[in-house]
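Before a colleague's protein record goes any further, I have to sign it off. Would you go through it and say whether the fold makes sense for this chain? Take the sequence as given and treat only the tokens as open to question. The record follows directly below this note.
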Amino acid sequence: MLPLTGARVLMTADAVGGVWTYALDLAGGLAARGIETVLAVLGPAPAADQADAARAVPGLRLLPTNLPLDWLAETPEEVGAAGAALAALAAETEADVAHLHSPALAADAARFPVPVVASCHSCVGTWWEAVRGGPLPPDFAWRTRLVAQGCANADTLIAPTAAFAAATARFYGLAEAPAVVRNGRRPPTLRAHGAAPFAFTAGRLWDEGKNLRALDRAATRLAGAVPVLAAGPTEGPGGARVALRHVQTLGRLSEGQVARRLAERPVFVSTARYEPFGLSVLEAAQAGCALVLSDIPTFRELWDGAAEFVAAEDDRAIADAIGRAARDPAHRARLAAAARARADRYTMEAMAAGTAAVYRPLLRRAEAPGETAAA
């Protein structure tokens, strides 16, 4: 078996959402296998606490690039130029594999000198299909064309759930669905205590796919009997925003601040209409929170039997589920125990092992005499 010790990965990420958390945990897990990660950060620079967290990861070199994010770029040429710059960076850093956070970065303008793994974390095409529906607007159409090119050019595609892998294959007409490597998180360091009398959610609140307006309507029905708190930005880097009247917004919290909230073991709620995985749900489950989740395919795949499911737009059912978990200690304890047990499947170590297994044949092929890596 080809050893991976000493291999170097050029990985891309952004500091805007869950991809950042994924990248740091994956880099930490790969480091335990002797794999070095150079993390090229696209888009806005990491916040101070994010940069501190990156510096604490062994075997990780943080590399801000000032390159535009694919989903914030204004033209296809910007995305193509970012991909080309990353391909040059792969050569400059002497990487053995390029691991991209979006297939669009492997579109035709980029010619990578090493094998390419592209993570299908999310995309505007499947987002539009799940959240809006109907014909794609022009701004989304060219972005999905770049994703399609990148899917064709990448050596391997991976996705965090089978449900999202299937959605990606269907939308882009792939002959084969991406390989499934489920996301994982390192366990919490804070000891959980009590069962706080509030509901909690976290993430990019401004993202229409997170469906915070439905949770806001549910909070109205709860009429303060169970406060609903939400951590995360209400305005996105592209100008998207959400105004909430009854959910108490806390703004962006650091990872440690979110962990302290989760350690209080509130009822954790996600009413998302689009969620390829949901790292915040996993973090809540690891902390021993009861889960109330929208009934979408990815959540069913990951948490069936370990959460209470509700229709994403049914604010009455959402409010009832939150109220039931808050009022009934036995019901809440059963949900929390089931969620924590299920979370044991989704570890940082399992994610790193699955990813390393994806890298291995690519490295073997790249090292074979007379063979070259695919562009």
Remarks:
- Residues 348-367 form the longest helix (20 residues).
